[in-house]
Write a structure and sequence with these properties.
By secondary structure, the chain is of the alpha/beta class. It is 47% helix and 13% strand. The chain has a single domain, classed as Alpha-Beta Barrel (TIM Barrel), CATH 3.20.20.
Length: 346
Amino acid sequence: MSQYAQELRATAQAMVAKGKGILAMDESNGTCNRRFQKLGIPATQEYRQAYRELILTTPGLSDYISGPILYDETIRQTTREGVPFLRVIADAGMIPGIKVDTGAQDLAGHPHEKVTEGLDGLRDRLAEYYQMGARFAKWRAVITINTDIPSQACIEANAHGLARYAALCQEGGLVPIVEPEVLIDGDHSLAQCWHVTDATLHEVFHQLHMQNVALDQMILKPSMVIPGLGCNQPASIEAVAEATISCLLKNVPASVAGVAFLSGGQSTSQAAEHLNAMNLIFGEQCPWPVTFSYARAIQQPALDHWGGEPSRVEAAQQRLRQRAQCNSAASRGEYSSEMEKTLAIA
């Protein structure tokens, strides 16, 4: 058992406190730059800093967000006035987290499949982040559905990496967010996604058990069971909610501290509607809190409006807070499309 067990348990519970979710703002510099370029925002460190300051200084954000996941550049940055972002987060009553994987690379011997890297030197990096003030971490693995994939080798390699990472986190005092993402890209059906998610989660929890990871001191960040973007058989909100929860109940032990979904390419309203249905219809069946850890599904309206213009910061922050508020309501089963209208911003 980790010397940090009590602290880890308390942190994990705070991360999924009722009505709160986790804000994923840990996109790499390359990903952030690509999003900027699409909107004509200069892809520079200065603009990345300004955008991240916009997010973290949004008034009232901590009413809906338990903590943000940061990138290595972000955790070292300050506001324009020189206040460290870590202090801004702590002063707002939020918990700082950090992405620690180094990205998905081609899996040798398995065309079109990926494995996430970053275990080398991870123990030392976690120690530095803990000293800086981070209290949770994130590692993302990606599983692609296609005609002959995913292979069992790909699922096992990624599950093993997630489990090794999670064990190192708990040894070093950080709550691990375990993120096995079954990608929405492709034309697979709801049923195909269910079977792949089932196999993935089964292997992930097998590997977590093998590595002695304490389940009450970790958060699972899964993808929803949803048809691929190219599928010609759309699924209803209720069907996605039912498929997702049934898959989780089959594979996720009751002792896991919480489930915080990724949005995975869904629209802002879809991500809220699916989460809301899970809590509204199946909430009483779930032994763990079911909430969100969204990136674009919270940030995109704010980024679109800001566009790099200092004069638009306040209005962009209103849009960010609105999305956080909608998803907070969804995590309690209290979201409705009417909220989008009543919270609409001119």
